[in-house]
Amino acid sequence: MKKILVIALLILALAALTGPASGQGTDVCPALVTDALQSLDSVCAGLERDAACYGYNRVDAIFWRPQVEARFSRPSDRTALLDLQTIATAPLDLASNQWGLVLLNLQADVPETLPGQAVTFLLMGDVTLQNAVPPEQAAGAVAPVSGVTITASNIRSRPTTAANILTSVPAGTPLTITGVSEWRDWYELLLADGGRGWIFGQLVRVSDAAALSRLPVGSGPRYGPMQAFYFTTGFGGPVCAEAPNALIIQSTELAEVRLNVNALEIRLGSTIALMTAPTGDGAGQALVIALLDGRLQTRVGGYPVTLTRPGQAIAVSLNAAGLVDTGSRLLRLRDPAVGEQIAAAARFAARSSLFGRPIAPPASLPALAYYIPPPPPTPVPATATPIGPTINFVADRTTINLRECVTLSWAVENVREVYFQGQGVTGQGSRQECPPYNMTYTLTVVLQNGERVSRSIPITVLGGYYISFTADRTNIKLGECVTLTWATEGVREVYYQNRGVVGNGSQQECPSVYPPADVTYTLNVVLQNGESTTRTVTVRVN
Description:
10% of the residues lie in helices and 42% in strands. By secondary structure, the chain is mainly β. Strands 1, 3, 5, 6, 16, 19, 20, 23, 24 and 25 form a ten-stranded mixed beta sheet that branches. The model is unreliable at 1-25 and 111-116 (pLDDT under 50).
């Protein structure tokens, strides 16, 4: 009996020695996670835009410039994202009671006219985030310029008539202009779906032409601090299920925003969870993005991907540098621990008060619904559909004062020939004209089928005048006659050969001169302002 008692005591002693790990997992972990959450919500409340907050007790930061004083070294410290090069949160360490938490508040890539546009990042556990936007390349907040289409117009994917047409809009359509092309002849637009498009500038009337000079120039992507980043997480199972290694991102509800993650551009109006994990075949790593609510769009290997159901996810293979490239593909991971960590991260984020809208975490995500593209459909020979012509012909104004000028512009596509005032021109161009009297300008195009189509713009000239004085021929024989014709507009008086006449008329003359000689006929005109001007026609008599 005594022997049995001794054995029992030994077993209890061994349990006391080996039990702390499981005991800490069930008792210490929830307490530490609760403390971390309380610290995060307390010290990071009211975080300003484009800033980071040190939320819990082990965060490492590298800045773009050397630091000589303690900075971002303890919970509640804050710093501007523009200054951060790399930020890393620590995995759970029960021995030192450490688990890293950081909150980021980014300015969304949408116009400032939409209030409250922010993106919230929460890094937890073994996460490293490297800023891919150096300070000198960071885009500032765009103050857009309002505009309206002058005529029916095409909106294209790039600033060239060779780019595909995203949509067409009628005259009078309001526009939000967020950038200009390198030659400033095309305007970048914010579209209703949050995307970008381009319109030929001559088709737009802007509210503030001077403000265009303050817009970003060029058609490439523009990112603010941490809107483009390189991202990794530790994997292999956290010490506690309640303390995963993951990144939670929540975007605005009012418009989709654009981010670049490991060279993968994504657009989201949603809450997502991200982590990196082994591909399972020993070939490398994958970027995992799971949708918690809303909508996410991206493109992998040229294939468009849209997630709309909570629990949907994509796993994208990464190259040796940890980036998404043209060889990356969509995968289906088999390890249920990926889903479990994402579910744990969602549950933790749902308890925080720092997100703009509530997060409804799934009970568990042991098997994510990975998005795999369907097999391509059997190709069916397509019948080519002729592309119709597009003819845009506009003037910056149609009423001017005498000696002022007007700019006429055109953009024509899918036609054979283009003529401005009878002169052959390219399909896209403009002319400045300074007419002295009311005049109509005409653009004529020859369609692909040979048909001719014209567009005309009448220009009214206030204070302008018109004078024409011609002969049906200027070389006659002795005894023959000639008819002289005049036409005037916007004048006060007209005199033919010093005899008052009406503004539009004609006169037959049979000059009898011998020996034969030149005979000059004169038309004198008094303008509305009292000035006089003269036109002459000389007829040679042989």
